[in-house]
Amino acid sequence: MTTSEFSRFFAVLSLACGAGTLVIGVAWVAARVRPSSRVADLLDGVAPAALWVAWIVAAVTTFGSLYYSEVAHFVPCKLCWYQRIAVYPLSLVLLVAGLRRDDRVWTYVLPPALVGLGFAVFHTQLQAYPHTSSFCTTTEPCTARYVWEFGFVSLPFMAMTAFAGIIALVLLARRGHD
């Protein structure tokens, strides 16, 4: 598989993750409005698997970033490193939490996921609308679009959807224990 094919595959996964996150959000609102609805029952039925899906998202994100730097030889910028610092531990933490069926995992997953999401949102807009940034250097530019699928899906966009998905999924997993 070429890097271009890998990028297209990861872009599609990212869009699926973003769509799933939106569905979870809409379903959560619908369940709050009508707690005894089918949507609420569906969320309650899916909640036990949410932690494992969050782990898969974190693991794929981790391995994807390692592929891009170690196999494709894309040089990560400072903002990429900050996002990696936030997501790499989540792969292990979510695996352990899933194995232990830890219903309090959201308390220690949300802080790094929210920080990572913040960096990813900033980095996404920076790549979409490049301008001078104090984070950028000529050797490791934050605005370099190593991936630009479908006219908007970049590496930080992929990280942004992953963090948003992880946040939604750990909150959904929490729902199963409320």
Looking at this protein, list some descriptive labels.
single chain, 178 residues, mainly alpha, 5 helices, globular
Commentary on this structure:
The protein is globular. The chain is built from five helices and no strands. With 178 residues, the chain is mostly helical.
Topology:
Layout: H1 3-33, H2 38-71, H3 78-100, H4 106-128, H5 155-175
Helix pairs in contact: 1-2, 1-5, 2-3, 2-5, 3-4, 4-5
How many E strands? 0
Distance between the termini: 44 Å
* Helix coverage percent: over 70%
Number of helices: 5
The rounded Rg comes to: 17 Å
Please provide the ordered H/E string of secondary-structure elements.
Answer: HHHHH
How much of the sequence is in beta strands?
A: under 5%
* Helical/strand content category: mainly alpha
The largest β sheet comes out as: none
Residue stretches low in confidence (pLDDT < 50, at least 5 long) are none
Assembly state of the chains shown: single chain
Overall geometry: globular
Mean residue pLDDT: 90
